[in-house]
Fold this sequence. Notes:
Strand order of the largest sheet of chain B: 1-2
CATH topology of the largest domain in chain B: Cytochrome Bc1 Complex, Chain C
Oligomer: heterodimer
CATH architecture of the largest domain in chain B: Up-down Bundle
Shape of chain A: elongated
Strand content of chain A: 25-35%
CATH architecture of the largest domain in chain A: 3-layer Sandwich
Shape of chain B: elongated
Helix content of chain A: 10-25%
Number of strands of chain B: 2
Largest sheet of chain B: 2 strands, antiparallel
Largest sheet of chain A: 4 strands, antiparallel
Number of helices of chain B: 19
CATH class of the largest domain in chain B: Mainly Alpha
CATH class of the largest domain in chain A: Mainly Beta
Strand order of the largest sheet of chain A: 5-6-7-8
Strand content of chain B: under 5%
Distance between the termini of chain B: 74 Å
CATH superfamily of the largest domain in chain A: Rieske [2Fe-2S] iron-sulphur domain
Number of domains of chain A: 2
Amino acid sequence: MASPPYSDRVPGPTQRVPENTTRRRFYLSIIYGLWGFMSLALSIPAFVYLLFPPRVRKQSEWVEAGDVSKLAVGEPVEMVFRENRVDGWKVTSEKENVWVVKFSDQNIVAFGPQCTHLGCAYHWDDGKREFQCPCHSSVFSVDGNVVSGPAPRPLDRYEAKIQNGKLLLGALRESGAKNA
Amino acid sequence: MSWKTRLITWLDHRTGVETAVRNFLYEKIPDSSGWRQVFGSVALFLFLVQAFTGALLAFNYAPTPGDAYNSLRYILTELTAGRLIRGLHHWGASMMIVVVVLHMVQVFVYGGYKKPREATWIAGVFLLLLTLAYGLTGYLLPWDNRAYWGTVVTTQIAAKAPVLGPYLTRLLGSTGDVGVVTFARFYGLHVLLLPPATMLLIALHIYLVRKHGVAPVPGDELLPGRKFYPEQAFRDTVAIFLAFAILFVMAAAVRVPLEELADPTDTTYVPRPEWYFLFLFQTLKLFKGPLEMAGAVILPALAILVLILVPFMDRGRIKKITERGFAAAIVVLAALGWAGLTAVALVTTPKPAVAQVDFSQPTDWLQLSPMELAGIGYFREENCASCHTVGGGKSRIGPDLANMPIKRSAAWMIQHFKRPSAMVPGSAMPAIQLTDAQLNTLAAFLLKLNPQNAEALQSAPDFATQGALIYQKSFCGSCHLLNGVGMKIGPLNV
């Protein structure tokens, strides 16, 4: 292998040391350029892979909770339905609860099953006609407003619509103002 | 002094990092050093890429047979750049084998293993074995049919080892079958045991290279040496970049298949190892009966032993490359043997039974709708042709179905199929035991028959009619469109 005439050669006693800075600069720019390029080519896909949200699988936005055509007006009923939950590569079918109150054929309200205070499961007291939370005695009226206790806001509601007598539920929306 | 110089000096006084980098970059290398010495650096780089992409895959991978397949499919289909990362890891493994072997061939041809570099060579042989072990254990992790059946064969071979066989089987957790235990062992080896072992051996290997220096060639001693940086560093970088570019293009362009989920009951699957193990697979086939063990275990073990002992079998002084014809001959012979065995293995691999249209035969049936094809399927299942001819031929008991114009409705046909004598008094035709929907399919086909399209009845291959039967039974047509028939919700089949 012919040795290039430039300064990397360890100088021998009789050897001249020619400074070939152009060639050295070329080497350095290639070294840093290529390593920089490769670092980017590896790190950009890595960031994209870790930070971009997964492409969502298409699923129906409305979940059927049950038949509401035969509900009595003004009588809350607890309904249990199943919903698919997507967790990474796993799709699990989970049991969900909802309190459904029919005010009229067109006006049906679906309450999230947790007390807005600290998330306990409340129940309906038929005698007193109110929702009662067993944890800290929050009390809600049949339309979800706070009657008494520490609950900061009315019961949360599911987006709901009725199709062929079936109740379809959408997202659970956090209720806003005090006693809407 | 600028703040930069001061910072570096401060750091160097506390950590010695600048001195270390300097010592590393300004290592003295022989005058003869050149492009042929780049392979070690490329191998090291590829190992780092494997470690990096492997960790990324592990962030979204569930290492149990129940979930592995689903999580990999999630990486491939739902995560952005997931397919690229997996491609880099998959092809990086193959590439690493290639580069490690090239590295060994270079050292072997130049006699770089000679005294005092025997230990460097032996550490290198073990690094080769580790590289192969990654390939073997990583093969199972997708848990598709390829992975499962490949590993079944591997563990069965290990079980054949003399004396050690039963212990190896227990160690690999494959006492009963390849299952959860084997999977856990392979995963543990692949990500927990092999990487630190590789890192230790690489450290030892590099330490030894530094200790003894890069192997010189005769004549180097007369010339002053050079520094590694920047000229040799430039060569290494360019070689690494070339390897990386090839790897990246392969990862982006060549799709690594994820086959069907591992199915231990699939008797049609033809397991084949990864391409770099094919020569071993073919060697195994050369040995029959009691000699099988020799081919499967003893021969490869001997080959490894010989590889380790190379520096002790060739003990002369370092010679010029032109005087090492014998070493070159060994490399050529080994390459030819490897290529020959691999080629035979590839050629003798049976093609999977893929339905193929024989275009040398009439292909009228390609124009038929799924319903009509399914009708042909029922026509064959019910052996209608044992009494009826279609479009000529030797006359049989029943009428020729193509030459008699059927002026009946489908409803009449269905009643006729159910009770032939009730619709056609005196008919000797037996009733057809099919559901109404199936009879409807059959009627649809028969009502369309004429001498022109009767050919399709004969020429439609069985896979097409069987497929059409499934298509009809499963109501695929309610979402997919085929030959212009059906709904348009699903993707087009044709």
